[in-house]
Amino acid sequence: MRIDIVTIFPSFFDVLDISLLGKARQSGIIELGVHDLRDHTHDRHRTVDDTPYGGGAGMVMKPEPWGEAFDELLGEQPGAAVAGADPLVIFPSPAGEVFTQATARALAHEQRLVFGCGRYEGIDQRVFDHVASRARVKLVSMGDYVLNGGEVAVMAMIEAIGRLIPGVVGNPESLVEESHENGLLEYPSYTKPASWRGLEVPPVLLSGNHGAIAAWRHEQQLERTRRVRPDLLDLGEH
Ligand code: 6GU
């Protein structure tokens, strides 16, 4: 997968050099390009924002630097694709569809993702409209709260998507038993020692009875989900 990010804070993404995602980049499974939006400004102050038409608080990101950045990433002709793959452009925004594990699973199948990180009160609407005439565009939110900009949201999305790409997580079986993969929260996990500071590992886990262990884990998932996230139980059959 090829991932490009446009941002006014390229160094935010330096941490993608480390951990599983860093390994995936070294092995070529994930290719990453981080692009400074200010490289597409032409004034002395490298201005990326201006006051909103119609008035109101805050600043709006100007369309011209975004237009140039996307010309470079998507090609200047309508429909022109770089390097074969049909890109999906994602703008992190609290006004977007909420990102879930299902979103991550769908996006993990894409060959090419381009993230546009907005700051301030948002990006001039014409940027979305123009990019949408040349590529598939999605606005994606991390949940019902407000961040100062899209960078942290993009980091979370890349981590959630990246670990679902074959070869990124060493043992793919570890992906199927975690929270949200079957619509439930994950069961509690234990390792050695069996007794620690007076706290015991549930005896069923030491029993060697695989059927009983699976049943206990499923019951734990249901109990946890009922208690913490009852909204998830309305969404499917468990
Ligand atoms: Cl994706 N961006 C911003 N700026 N705020 C958010 C968000 C995204 N998701 C939740 N809040």
From TrEMBL:
<dbReference type="GO" id="GO:0052906">
    <property type="term" value="F:tRNA (guanine(37)-N1)-methyltransferase activity"/>
</dbReference>
<dbReference type="InterPro" id="IPR029028">
    <property type="entry name" value="Alpha/beta_knot_MTases"/>
</dbReference>
<feature type="binding site">
    <location>
        <begin position="142"/>
        <end position="147"/>
    </location>
    <ligand>
        <name>S-adenosyl-L-methionine</name>
    </ligand>
</feature>
<dbReference type="InterPro" id="IPR023148">
    <property type="entry name" value="tRNA_m1G_MeTrfase_C_sf"/>
</dbReference>
<keyword id="KW-0808">Transferase</keyword>
<comment type="subunit">
    <text>Homodimer.</text>
</comment>
<keyword id="KW-0489">Methyltransferase</keyword>
<dbReference type="GO" id="GO:0032259">
    <property type="term" value="P:methylation"/>
</dbReference>
<dbReference type="Pfam" id="PF01746">
    <property type="entry name" value="tRNA_m1G_MT"/>
</dbReference>
<keyword id="KW-0949">S-adenosyl-L-methionine</keyword>
<keyword id="KW-0819">tRNA processing</keyword>
<dbReference type="InterPro" id="IPR029026">
    <property type="entry name" value="tRNA_m1G_MTases_N"/>
</dbReference>
<dbReference type="InterPro" id="IPR002649">
    <property type="entry name" value="tRNA_m1G_MeTrfase_TrmD"/>
</dbReference>
<comment type="similarity">
    <text>Belongs to the RNA methyltransferase TrmD family.</text>
</comment>
<feature type="binding site">
    <location>
        <position position="118"/>
    </location>
    <ligand>
        <name>S-adenosyl-L-methionine</name>
    </ligand>
</feature>
<protein>
    <recommendedName>
        <fullName>tRNA (guanine-N(1)-)-methyltransferase</fullName>
        <ecNumber>2.1.1.228</ecNumber>
    </recommendedName>
</protein>
<dbReference type="InterPro" id="IPR016009">
    <property type="entry name" value="tRNA_MeTrfase_TRMD/TRM10"/>
</dbReference>
<comment type="function">
    <text>Specifically methylates guanosine-37 in various tRNAs.</text>
</comment>
<feature type="domain" description="tRNA methyltransferase TRMD/TRM10-type">
    <location>
        <begin position="1"/>
        <end position="233"/>
    </location>
</feature>
<keyword id="KW-0963">Cytoplasm</keyword>
